Amino acid sequence: MLEVSLTGSLQDSADGLASISIDARTIRELLRKIVERYPRMQGRVDEGVAVSINGEIFRDNWGEEIPEGAEIYLLPRIRGG
Amino acid sequence: MAHDPSYTNQEFKVIGTRPPRPDGLDKVTGRAKFGADAFAPGQLVGLILRSPHPHAQIRKIDTSKAEKLQGVKAVITSADMPDLTNGNRNMLDILENCMARGRALYDGHAVAAVAAIDMPTARKALKLIKVGYEILPHVTDVDEAMKPDAPIVQPYVRTTGVEPKPKKASNVSQVTQFGHGDVEAGFKEADVIIEKSYKTEQTHQGYIEPHACLASVGPDGQGELWVTTQGHFAFREVCAKLLGMEVAKLKVTASEIGGGFGGKTHVWMEPVALALSRKANRPVKLVMSREEVFRSTGPTCSTSVDVKIGAKKDGTITAATATLRYQNGAFPAIWAMLGAMTSYACYNLKNVKTVGYDVLVNRPKVTAYRAPSAPMAAFAVESTIDQVAEAIGMSPIDFRIKNAAKEGTRASYGPKYGPIGIGPTLEAAKNHPHMRARLGKNQGRGMACGFWFNFGGQTCTDLNIGVDGTVTLTVGTVDVGGSRASLSLIAAEELGIAYERVKCNIADTGSLGHNDMTEGSRGTFSSGMATIFAARDVIEVLRERAAKTWEIPVEDVVWEGGQAVAKGKAHGNLTPLTLSDLAAASPNSGGPIAGHNEVVADGAGVSFASHICDIEVDPETGATKVIRYTVIQDAGKAIHPDYVEGQFQGGAVQGIGWALNEEYVYGEDGRLQNPGFLDYRIPVCSDLPYIDTQILEIPNPNHPYGIRGVGETSIVPPLAAIGNAVSNAAGVRMTHVPMSPPRILKAIKSEQAELAAG
Amino acid sequence: MSAVLVTTTINGDRTEFVCETDETLLDALRNRLGLTGSKEGCGTGDCGACSVTVDGRLVCSCLVLGVEAEGCEVNTIEGMADGDVLHPLQAKFIEHAALQCGICTPGFLMAAKVLLDKNPNPSEVEIRFALAGNLCRCTGYDKIVRAVKAAAKEVRKR
């Protein structure tokens, strides 16, 4: 089971929760299960999100495996110049 | 083949050297072809008509006279660019920014466009287009736009991130919050609390090359676009979507790019050029004037920020907050959110809270500008950090070192850091001779830290071996600052050959798979990774070819020093085969030798910098002079140190311009007053000293060579470093950027008046 | 429309072109003669990317009319190298990484050449003021000044 912290306005789409518990082994599974539980999250995932696994930010690689007990943050997708 | 992106410590042969860049000769002889340097048979000249009003209902557009003018081949309005975005509001915003749809939202918003046989005809045609405007109230200031009675910029926008959900439209598009701990409790523990408000004005990326493209679309639905861009693959997707074209049928070629800094990550008039070309069935060249660039393309936000920091006498920060209001222009975006994420990223804080307000105003659509949003937040935070240090009697550098984030620190935006470079850049700053240099009369020293995330993203490269053993490296990331040189170095390093034997090309969208844009400091990081992997694939092929030639098992062949070597006693008589040998034999050993890699290069690794500067202030006039400037930044690994230094220096000087001179000035009428380089003054050669650099190399664990992005972080500290230096020199705290002579003089005078009043 | 025939010498070659009376020299060079090495960054004489010399004088070609070139000697970036031998400024700009995007480079090279033609031993301050009419947004000017210094040394050897 993973504790997923939601940052910024993402909490809005998950009934205002700051963190949720989800069982997932990859980013893809994590996002799928979050959307299943909070359908409004689909729009946010479509707009783009990033997932921080133990401090490392992943934006595109949904196949990335999530180690047991990892610290997970769901972040809005960020841009650079 | 799967490759491991983890860092391996190794001795380099060519990485870290400074060979001449492959595009150098073309660029010093005038041969390099930029956006406006392409011509097509039968090409027309495109021109765009822009709104002179900051906010107006467009009642009617009469194009009939323009259409009848001899030599005019197409006139378009939003009616020629129907909404095909299928409910995707972000895409519709992009379309609406390219061409107003019923309402002009800022001074400079496109309302119509023409294509004609030459420039005089196109100019005449623009004058013949009659637009009926009904002028609406406007707002251009971020704080004004947040007031309840402010004119509403986008009626569809409801603030997200607040409870209860608003039913009424607002100029605040989103509220975002980051942080951890209990700031109220933290402030109670503090011996000193400093609370201050800051403002920064809007600036432009200021690339010297205006936007330019040559578009060609035929009635068969196929098209080509030659364009100055940071990301031709993304431009292809957006343009195809907006125009209802098939992605594969639009070929986009990136010209040499004359600077971007984020401003060329976004389409502005390219869809208009394609629409004109489609209507005229002729190629259309569309080149913006400098005035159009200023009025209508990608500036960064103006901001208004409140900061509160509390600390104990021993120098520990107990709590920190920031409220950040960023205007995004006329379309919703995430810029305040990025400010809220980056504000305190340099520090190890128990209690921290930041709140960002993204705000709409009647100004051009804001786009990314080098480490977007971070410099303004850093100005507010780093200025306050200096004041707290002063209040508790610590030196600014020691105070920062004491509170610096380190491996394991929880970042203010959430996650915990891996190995990071803020501590080492601060230590290097403390030990730098600049810190001990004597200051003259009216001179002050300032320092500041900066942070940026860096990104990786989708990347794809080809590596082909020519029959003579030379290497063609094909990448899809636009070269904005010398990446063809650094990527060639990487290919040479992997293959064990000379740099001169590699030629790096930027592919058009028809020649390579999708590549994300060159943004987020990702060019060398991500294409470097894909190049390493493609080269490793090639080495596997080369080993197989050598094994075939020698008729021995491939396991007995290793690649060493640019050649295949047979290992083991049984093969002692076999002469090594060089890359050239194997290439020459390739027709009979299995055909072309090539490697290819597609990768999602995540894990770009955050980057930190510390800057030191000395500024002299003339107390009579408020004029400033930059006396000395030092940039210290972590690069992970500097592949071509010249171009790493170049990024450090260029970013610092953009920050210097922002801090001291550059600003968008809007009149009461909502019109931009200074859309030219004479009145929007970027730094020139005689304004500056040499910019000293110190490259630190703290390897990024997520890249085979330890590379981190280097392009953006260098623009983050200058606003604050200069703010602190000017404040120390003038003896008065500066809170409004740019610190232009009138603003400095005003601050000095009001300080003197306050002192006189006792 | 009132096109005029203009006879000039461009980079040493006698050249004729036709242009409108209100057409800039920059547009004539770029659009009529295919000499796109001179760039338009502003069109108002503020950025120096279009710098050329007319009878040895450094000008912003966006502020000069094409017809004003009648009977003049015009030199552009395309004529700076001597055959396959680069001018020391060109060589040093490459060697010192004095360019990133390269859009301002032709203008800087023209301005720097005019400086070195007059003063082959300029100080840092003289270089900085001689190049103050040229904008560069990538480099922060550091490596440009160093490259000009190094080129001056080469020029003095000749």
CATH domain class name of the largest domain in chain C: Alpha Beta
Residue ranges of chain B: pLDDT <50 for 5 or more in a row?
Answer: none
Overall 3D geometry of chain B?
A: globular
Average pLDDT metric of chain B: 96
Structural class of chain C: alpha+beta
The CATH topology annotation of the domain at 24-32 and 456-601 in chain B reads as: Aldehyde Oxidoreductase, domain 4
Per the CATH scheme, the topology name of the largest domain in chain C is Ubiquitin-like (UB roll)
Mean pLDDT of chain C: 97
Percent strand of chain C: 15-25%
Helix content of chain B: 25-40%
Question: Which percent bin holds the helix content of chain C?
Answer: 25-40%
Number of spatially distinct domains of chain C: 2
The largest beta-sheet of chain B arranges its strands as 3-5-1-12-9-10-11
Biggest beta sheet attributes of chain C: 5 strands, mixed
Helix tally of chain B equals 20
Can you identify the CATH superfamily of the largest domain in chain C?
Beta-grasp domain
Oligomer: heterotrimer
Q: What's the shape of chain C?
A: globular
Top keywords for this entry?
heterotrimer, A: 81 residues, alpha+beta, Ubiquitin-like (UB roll), five-stranded mixed beta sheet, 2 helices, 5 strands, B: 758 residues, Aldehyde Oxidoreductase, domain 4, seven-stranded mixed beta sheet, six-stranded mixed beta sheet, 27 strands
What is the topological layout?
The complex is a heterotrimer of chains A (81), B (758) and C (158).
Chain A: E1 2-6, E2 19-22, H1 27-37, H2 41-47, E3 49-53, E4 56-58, E5 72-76
Parallel strand pairs in A: 1-5
Antiparallel strand pairs in A: 1-2, 3-4, 3-5
Chain B: H1 24-29, E1 44-50, E2 56-62, H2 64-68, E3 72-76, H3 89-98, E4 103-104, E5 110-116, H4 119-128, E6 130-135, H5 142-145, E7 172-180, H6 183-189, E8 192-200, E9 212-217, E10 223-227, H7 232-243, E11 250-254, H8 270-280, E12 284-287, H9 290-296, E13 303-311, E14 317-327, H10 335-342, E15 352-359, H11 374-392, H12 396-403, H13 422-431, H14 433-436, E16 443-452, E17 457-465, E18 471-475, H15 483-495, E19 502-506, H16 523-550, E20 557-560, E21 563-566, E22 577-578, H17 579-589, E23 593-601, E24 607-617, E25 624-634, H18 641-660, E26 691-696, H19 718-730, E27 736-737, H20 741-757
Parallel strand pairs in B: 1-12, 8-27, 10-11, 14-15, 18-19, 25-26
Antiparallel strand pairs in B: 1-5, 2-4, 2-6, 3-5, 7-15, 8-13, 9-10, 9-12, 13-14, 16-24, 17-18, 17-23, 20-21, 21-22, 24-25
Chain C: E1 3-10, E2 13-20, H1 25-32, E3 51-54, E4 57-60, E5 73-75, H2 88-95, H3 105-118, H4 124-130, H5 142-157
Parallel strand pairs in C: 1-5
Antiparallel strand pairs in C: 1-2, 3-4, 3-5
